[in-house]
């Protein structure tokens, strides 16, 4: 579904991604782990075309999107939930969700809204509440819900567990699994390596802009180097 071949990304003189090749197949949960500054968010955003890859090739559903404008990539089956759950704080849950389906037909909008509210009953209860007055966990649910409104084939999630209480993190990971079961492919970037690898079919480890390991989620969890570096020994 998604393929990266030898992708490089620069921010001016900073060489943030140094030849990344990976793939995500339909129906998978694929997790990317790595330390602070390894380039995880850069990889996520490069897939979305902002920043653009300075070298290499990105294909999504068989189409080369390396040079496609971000707004076009986002309208063709790919959604991203960026780090830091950037919901529109002055808008209600309903309005935030509607923004996620801005380019969709009324039918798809209604159908996706129903799906999101079933997945997140909490959002149903808060439907008319302004996002800025909701808890961090509720805002994260809303950010994911908004990402789903566009009916994506592939959902990119950047650190969905960041700054949340353990019980909320467990709920979010539950929901990520449910999403996969209902047909959405997931590419997940996480610092919470333990939980993220536990639900992943496959995982990649990024260090200093390069992939240094790839395996099944299960094998990475059992790997001594991964344990030492990312699972607290
Ligand atoms: P974190 O887990 O802390 O979010 P990360 O793995 O997502 O880290 P990135 O945010 O992708 O890492 O950063 C990778 C490298 O690129 C870092 O050295 C960072 O300083 C640099 N970088 C990121 N964004 C920019 C930018 N807009 N301009 C210049 N350098 C940047």
Number of helices: 10
Mass-distribution shape: globular
Order of helices and strands: EEEHEEHEHHHHEHEHEEHH
Bound compounds, each kind once, are:
adenosine-5'-triphosphate
Count the E strands: 10
Q: Specify the helix fraction band.
A: 25-40%
Radius of gyration: 17 Å
Largest sheet: 6 strands, mixed
Q: Terminal Cα separation, in Å?
A: 34 Å
Order of strands, main sheet, comes to: 6-7-8-3-9-10
Structure, explained:
It is a single chain. With 233 residues, this protein is of the alpha/beta class. Helices cover 37% and strands 27% of the residues. The chain is built from 10 helices and 10 strands. It has helices at 40-47, 70-73, 93-100, 106-119, 121-125, 136-148, 166-181, 193-198, 217-222, 224-230; strands at residues 2-11, 14-24, 29-34, 55-60, 63-64, 78-81, 154-158, 185-190, 202-207, 210-216. The protein has a 6-stranded mixed sheet, with helices on both faces. The chain has a 4-stranded antiparallel sheet with strand order 2-1-4-5, covered by helices on one side. α3 (93-100) runs parallel beside α6. It is globular and about 45 Å long. The two termini are 34 Å apart. The mean pLDDT is 92. Adenosine-5'-triphosphate (ATP) binds next to β2 and α1. Adenosine-5'-triphosphate is lined by residues 11, 14, 16, 34, 36-42, 191.
Supply database-style keywords:
alpha/beta; 27% strand; six-stranded mixed sheet; binds adenosine-5'-triphosphate; 233 residues
């Amino acid at each position: 579904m998604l393929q990266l071949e030898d992708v490089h990304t620069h921010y001016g003189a900073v060489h943030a991604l140094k030849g990344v090749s990976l793939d995500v197949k339909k129906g998978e949960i694929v997790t990317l782990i790595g330390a602070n500054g390894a380039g995880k968010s850069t990889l996520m955003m490069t897939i979305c075309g902002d920043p653009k890859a300075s070298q290499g090739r990105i294909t999504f559903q068989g189409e080369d999107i390396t040079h496609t404008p971000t707004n076009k990539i986002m309208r063709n089956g790919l959604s991203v939930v960026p780090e830091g759950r950037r919901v529109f704080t002055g808008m209600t849950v309903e309005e935030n969700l509607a923004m996620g389906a801005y380019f969709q037909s009324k039918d798809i909008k209604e159908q996706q809204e129903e799906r999101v509210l079933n997945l997140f009953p909490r959002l149903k209860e808060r439907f008319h509440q302004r996002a800025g007055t909701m808890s961090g966990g509720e805002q994260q649910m809303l950010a994911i819900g908004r990402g789903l409104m566009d009916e994506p084939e592939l959902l990119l999630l950047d650190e969905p567990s960041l700054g949340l209480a353990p019980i909320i993190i467990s709920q979010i990971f539950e929901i990520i699994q449910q999403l996969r079961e209902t047909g959405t492919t997931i590419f997940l970037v996480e610092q919470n390596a333990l939980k993220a690898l536990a639900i992943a079919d496959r995982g990649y480890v990024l260090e200093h802009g390069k992939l240094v390991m790839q395996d099944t989620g299960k094998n990475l969890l059992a790997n001594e180097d991964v344990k030492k570096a990312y699972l607290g020994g």
